[in-house]
Design brief:
Blueprint: E1 3-7, H1 14-21, E2 28-32, H2 35-44, E3 49-53, H3 61-71, E4 77-81, H4 86-94, E5 99-102, H5 107-125, E6 130-131, E7 143-144, H6 148-160, E8 167-170, H7 177-186, E9 195-199, H8 205-213, H9 230-233, E10 238-242, H10 249-261, E11 263-265, E12 272-274, E13 278-283, H11 287-292, H12 298-304, E14 308-310, H13 320-336, E15 342-343, H14 345-353, H15 359-373, E16 378-379, H16 399-412, H17 418-437, H18 442-449, H19 453-463
Parallel strand pairs: 1-2, 1-3, 3-4, 4-5, 6-7, 8-13, 8-14, 9-10, 10-13, 15-16
Antiparallel strand pairs: 11-12
Helix pairs in contact: 2-3, 13-15, 16-17, 17-18, 17-19, 18-19
The structure holds adenosine-5'-triphosphate (ATP).
Main location: cytoplasm
Keywords: Activator, ATP-binding, Cytoplasm, DNA-binding, Nitrogen fixation, Nucleotide-binding, Phosphoprotein, Repressor, Transcription, Transcription regulation, Two-component regulatory system
Subcellular location: Cytoplasm
């Protein structure tokens, strides 16, 4: 959903174009034809993004822009200009505008710019909560997990967020570095100023310098006008340099200078520009090793690493895997229209045993795949992608160690119901295995077990605590009537 405010006196074309790209009810487009009405609209309710014409009937776009900044500096503002007014738009970029587009509008570019701006707005606004307790439904942007290593991460965020220092975030891909960067920003004194991110690995080397520092007209072939880079645009705010380990060596010296002296020159320019940006850098690479191999400047590594936070890989977070899985099953279940109320213990065991090379991002993907396959109200192992369902050699008894553990556990707890408990445990294992082999078809599972479907259903209800049925052939099963 994009909430767009268009401030432009051109009633004929542009409002219709923006509405065509972002149609209701999925999106919301407000339109104001004067600066005054536009500002009133921002005061009533801040939009995700503002499209602002530079030439308005009552005041200049730049004046309106300054007033928007004073109301809320985090709203990304995209200027709409005639080619001849582009210099003013560049001036606005120096003061933190998000981008500018020329009239007549290129709809593809307009759509892309508004989507990017919405994403930037989301990053700044959606609060990142630090969740040491099991999460609840509202915890969309929460950092979830209470394992000792994550508690250390929360402590580090608390210690350093308000200090205006550079922070280096390390950890494998998908461990939550971007989420931590946003938490640092939101808990800092700069939380009302912009937060921008740049993925250093995603931008071709020859464009990266200009993206970061801007360029002057004629600096290189194709540089037909001045461009403002992220360090200038983000003055007063926070800049995340994602994948900083992939930054070319030549550029690293320039980054070091901005960090130390807060000055730089645009590509092809002589003017020294001062900037006040808090840098958060992140990488999945081992910068110490890279700098030992002279592939990353040691001085920059030391400068970035004054305060670093390491995100542990998911496989080292113990019970956090189950906590995250429950959270995502609730969240994605609601999004995908699946009424899964429980994750079977065997499913959790498989999740806990998986190496999670892609970390939380991989867990999200696995659970989405499982939910798409799932039916019934319990997430069974058979719904997991095959990667997580180990192929068992014929005759290998995987139940035995689990059953032994279970018995030892109950003995340690001095149970007086072990006979019934062990039988239930065995039943749980047996029914899950048979349902897996029947692809969730309860009638076929009942035939394999040699019991009626009704008996199987009663057993399943008894074995799963909330009294719900785990399998997915309800109602449509041709055998239902005969049981
Ligand atoms: N502890 C966590 N609690 C909840 N969600 C998390 C957690 N860690 C990561 N995520 C989610 O996992 C996904 C990947 O996280 P993020 O993009 O922050 O990882 P990253 O380390 O920056 O990855 P990359 O290096 O590949 O960019 C996001 O959707 C994020 O919200």
């Amino acid at each position: 959903m994009a909430d767009v405010l268009l401030i432009d006196d051109d009633a004929a074309v542009i409002p219709a174009q923006v509405r065509q790209l972002f149609p209701a009810p999925a999106h919301r487009v407000r339109w104001a034809s004067t600066g005054r009405d536009g500002l009133a609209s921002v005061r009533r309710e801040a939009p995700d993004v503002i499209l602002l014409d530079l030439m308005l009937p009552d005041q200049s776009g730049l004046e309106v822009y300054q007033q928007i900044r004073a109301l809320d500096a985090r709203i990304p503002v995209v200027f709409i200009t005639m080619a001849k007014t582009a210099d003013t738009a560049i001036e606005a970029m120096k003061h933190g505008a998000f981008n500018y587009l020329h009239k007549p509008l290129d709809l593809v570019q307009l759509g892309q710019t508004v989507r990017e701006a919405c994403e930037v707005a989301r990053r700044m606004r959606s609060p990142v909560l630090l969740n040491e307790e099991p999460p609840d439904e509202r915890a969309e942007g929460s950092l979830i997990g209470g394992c000792p290593a994550m508690l250390e991460v929360y402590k580090s965020i608390g210690r350093v967020a308000a200090q205006d220092v550079t922070v280096l975030l390390t950890g494998e891909s998908g461990t939550g570095k971007e989420l931590v960067a946003r938490a640092l920003y939101q808990h800092s004194a700069r939380s009302k100023a912009p937060f921008l991110a740049l993925n250093c690995a995603a931008i071709p080397e020859h464009l990266l310098e200009s993206e970061l520092f801007g360029h002057e007209k004629g600096a290189f072939t194709g540089a037909d006008r001045r461009r403002i880079g992220k360090f200038e645009q983000c003055n007063g705010g926070t800049l995340l340099l994602d994948e900083v380990g992939d930054m070319p060596l030549a550029l690293q010296a320039k980054i070091l200078r901005v960090l130390q002296e807060r000055t730089f020159e645009r590509v092809g320019g002589n003017e020294t520009i001062h900037t006040d940006v808090r840098v958060i850098a992140s990488t999945h690479r081992d910068l110490a090793r890279l700098s030992a191999q002279e592939r990353f400047r040691a001085d920059l590594f030391y400068r970035l690493g004054v305060f670093s936070i390491h995100l542990p890989p998911l496989r080292e977070r113990g019970d956090d895997v189950a906590t995250l899985a429950r959270h995502y099953v609730r969240r994605f279940g609601a999004e995908l229209g699946r009424d899964i109320r429980e994750i079977a213990p065997e499913t959790l065991e498989r999740l806990a045993a998986h190496p999670w090379k892609g970390n939380v991002r991989e867990l999200q993907s696995v659970l989405k795949q499982a939910l798409l396959k799932a039916s019934g109200t319990v997430l069974l192992p058979l719904f997991l992608p095959s990667l997580l369902n180990p192929v068992r050699p014929p005759g290998a008894g995987v139940a035995q160690p689990a059953l032994e553990d279970f018995i030892q556990q109950r003995l340690a707890l001095k149970t007086t119901q072990l006979y019934a408990e062990a039988h239930d445990e065995l039943d749980r294992f047996l029914l899950t295995a048979v349902l897996e082999s029947s692809q969730g078809n309860q009638s076929q599972a009942a035939r394999t077990l040699g019991v009626s479907r009704q008996t199987l259903r009663l057993k399943l209800r008894a074995l799963f605590p909330n009294g719900t049925e785990p399998s997915g052939e309800d109602g449509s099963d041709p055998d239902l009537a005969s049981n």
